[in-house]
């Protein structure tokens, strides 16, 4: 009887050690970095490429699938309103070698209009001889039918009739959204605040290397996209130190907290060590 109990205890410990080893390997994998490969499989397409958004857009509007074979390239756009709200991430599929950051931005804004699966994105721009300047960017955070009405008198139809991008001149006024549930930030003509453009040739949220680096050296009208490229816009309320605030991490690219995984692993070790021996 004692021999049988001993063998049973040995088998139990072996099974427990196997489970513990599996947990440890999973913990190491997730702790080793904020890799998008750490996310669940339904957030990657058939090629293993990252899917960071519920919707992908392309020239002409929404793309039915992130795996759409009619597009050869994928890029990403992150928008951070700098107001404490979670940054937004979008996927973009394209073919034309002349595609710019402005093209991606415009197509995504247009694609969100009337799309029941995504909240409306809208923007103000001002055109100069050197290209376009982003004046303001808004996001219909609560996904209602009232969006785009601003404190300066701009209304939803101004955006809805211009594919979501309204051409206007930047002013010194502090402009906000009438719907306080929506995110909207606008720069001023004195250039004390405004939207800052960042770019990266690869995923800035994984490494090495990682990070957005310095603000883009060119405007989004001149930025030629490459496959896997990322563009980021962040609103800076104080240009005293320009470019000191890079776009934050979108919710769709967050990974489990490594501390919680290590806690589970350490807990497993403690249980094993404290297990009474027979």
Structure characterization notes:
- With 278 residues, the protein is of the alpha/beta class.
- It has 2 domains: 2-33 and 262-274; 36-253, Ferric Hydroxamate Uptake Protein, Chain A, domain 1 (Beta Complex).
- The protein is 23% helix and 21% strand.
- It has helices at residues 2-31, 101-112, 156-160, 258-274, and strands at residues 56-58, 61-63, 73-80, 88-94, 121-128, 131-139, 165-167, 183-186, 194-200, 230-236.
- The strands form 2 sheets. Strands 2-1-4-3-10-9 form a 6-stranded mixed sheet, with helices on one face.
What is the overall number of helices? 4
Rounded average pLDDT = 75
Biggest pleated-sheet summary: 6 strands, mixed
Strand content: 15-25%
Count of all domains? 2
DSSP E strands, number = 10
Computed over alpha carbons, the radius of gyration is 24 Å
Ends distance? 13 Å
Which spans of ≥5 residues are poorly predicted at pLDDT below 50? Answer: 3-8, 15-51, 254-278
Element order: H for helix, E for strand: HEEEEHEEHEEEEH
Helix content: 10-25%
């Amino acid at each position: 009887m004692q021999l049988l109990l001993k063998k049973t205890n040995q088998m139990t410990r072996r099974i427990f050690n196997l489970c513990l080893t599996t947990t440890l390997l999973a913990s190491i994998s997730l702790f080793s970095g904020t890799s998008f490969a750490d996310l669940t499989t339904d957030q990657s397409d058939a090629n293993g490429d990252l899917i960071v958004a519920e919707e992908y857009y392309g020239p002409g509007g929404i793309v039915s699938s992130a795996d759409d074979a009619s597009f050869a390239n994928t890029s990403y756009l992150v928008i951070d309103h700098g107001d404490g709200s979670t940054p937004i991430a979008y996927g973009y599929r394209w073919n034309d070698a002349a595609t710019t950051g402005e093209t991606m931005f415009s197509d995504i804004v247009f694609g969100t209009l009337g799309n029941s699966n995504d909240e409306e994105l809208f923007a103000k721009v001002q055109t100069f001889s050197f290209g376009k300047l982003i004046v303001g960017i808004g996001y219909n955070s609560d996904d209602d039918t009232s969006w785009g009405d601003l404190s300066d008198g701009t209304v939803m139809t101004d955006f809805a009739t211009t594919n979501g991008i309204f051409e206007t001149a930047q002013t010194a006024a502090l402009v906000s959204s009438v719907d306080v549930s929506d995110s909207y930030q606008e720069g001023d003509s004195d250039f004390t605040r405004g939207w800052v453009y960042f770019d990266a040739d690869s995923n800035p949220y994984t490494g090495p290397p990682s990070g957005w680096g310095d603000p883009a050296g060119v405007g989004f009208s001149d930025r030629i996209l490459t496959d896997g490229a990322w563009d980021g816009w962040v609103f800076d309320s104080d240009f005293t130190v320009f470019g000191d605030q890079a776009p934050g991490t979108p919710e769709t690219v967050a990974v489990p907290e490594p501390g919680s995984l290590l806690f589970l692993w350490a807990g497993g070790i403690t249980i094993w060590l404290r297990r009474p021996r027979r």
